[in-house]
Amino acid sequence: MSDSPTSIPAIPEPPSPEEEVEAFISHWQSISKTGTLPRLADYLDHASPRSQPDIAIADVNPDGTVKVRLYGTRRVKIFGSEWTGRDPFDNFSPAAAKAGMQVTLTALRHPCGATAIFHFENKGAGELPAYSTILPLETDTPDALTFIHHLKFCEDLGEDDEPLRTLRFDELRFIDIGAGVPEVLPE
Question: How is the beta sheet containing 113-122 ordered, strand by strand?
């Protein structure tokens, strides 16, 4: 028997929101691709348990409608409802919805990813900033453009925090996924 005290391993610090975003992008990049983009089925077969609760997958249909295919469990908890089958831009102010749709279409058609800071109206007070990242996916749905959206709040939400809708976004940057990035930001 040893007389030395048993050491307890240190509990690692949880990853920062920035590290969570980088992990999401790295995971997307690690999925096998037949062309520039991973297929939705391949993404779902290799979903990251770390980021899956924070994602939504949606289609932009040829008629311009956007419908959520899958809505992560943490998002349901944070926003208080399931958004599968709904238009995610319904949760945006009119100006943010228009700008968000322009960025989404630019990223999907190029193709590239995009990241920005979303500012949510807070039921408690003030605004709640969150890292927003979209990356395109290939599907078998004819003429639809599909994307995966990762959302991570910049700080842990408090008891009185309740994000209501996206007011605006800033710090937009496109992510080169092998096809370059657009030279001009959408107006």
Answer: 66-71, 55-60, 145-153, 127-137, 113-122, 163-175
